[in-house]
UniProtKB/TrEMBL annotation:
Pfam families: 5-FTHF_cyc-lig. This is 5-formyltetrahydrofolate cyclo-ligase. It comes from Microbacterium psychrotolerans. It comes from the Bacteria. Its EC number is 6.3.3.2. Its cofactor is Mg(2+). Belongs to the 5-formyltetrahydrofolate cyclo-ligase family. InterPro entries: FTHF_cligase (IPR002698), FTHF_cligase-like_sf (IPR024185), NagB/RpiA_transferase-like (IPR037171). GO terms for molecular function: 5-formyltetrahydrofolate cyclo-ligase activity.
């Protein structure tokens, strides 16, 4: 990755972090309700019975009520658990599952770990992002967990990144290691950018 691209990514992430800090609690609540509705419709559209999702932090578009509802409806939801080798492990979400602080302070499930390849069996991946552009390029938070996961999957199902409306932009800085997404989910809309990744 060139220094210019790395610098552009760092600057954009810092700006996005700052913007997310300024969102009011009321706006966060509305955003979470919108994300839940959009993700419910996406799951139904794909007929997904097994998905991966993530437990949102306090500054991310909220996914927790969606996860809770999906589990209650009998959908198998895999939640990521970070590992020191840069890969993601996975655990099945349960309605009474404990949540602990994982690496980097991220909320992660406590429970049986299924290994990195467990995600190969899902019908739909729902992943976090800092920003996504019109071509489907995703800017993550710089640790590469999702890029490694997506890049290693033999058969990758549709991948949708969750962002706030203002974070779906014309272009994000990217390099050859960055993995594109199929679409983007915001509190007000779901946009499919490509029929499938591969």
């Amino acid at each position: 990755m060139s220094d210019a691209i790395a610098d552009a990514k760092r600057a954009l992430r810092a700006e996005l972090r700052e913007r997310r800090q300024l969102i009011t609690p009321q706006a966060r609540e509305l955003a979470e309700a919108g994300i839940r509705d959009q993700l419910d419709a996406l799951v139904a559209e794909h007929g997904a019975r097994s998905i991966s999702c993530f437990l949102s932090t306090t500054t991310e578009p909220g996914t927790r009520s969606f996860v809770t509802d999906a589990v209650a409806r009998g959908i198998r939801v895999l939640l990521p658990v970070t590992r020191t080798d840069g890969l993601l492990d996975w655990a099945v979400a349960t309605d009474d599952g404990d949540i602990a602080e994982g690496m980097f302070g991220l909320p992660e499930p406590v429970g049986e770990l299924l290994g990195p390849i467990a995600v190969n069996d899902v019908d739909l991946l729902i992943i976090p992002a800092a920003s996504v552009d019109c071509s489907g390029m995703r800017l993550g938070w710089g640790r590469g967990f999702y890029d490694k996961t997506l890049g290693s999957m033999e058969r990758c199902p549709p991948v949708y990144a969750v962002v706030f409306d203002s974070e779906f932009v014309d272009q994000v800085p990217s390099d050859e290691l960055d993995q594109p997404v199929t679409g983007v989910v915001t509190p007000t809309r779901t946009i499919t950018l490509a029929p499938s990744r591969r």
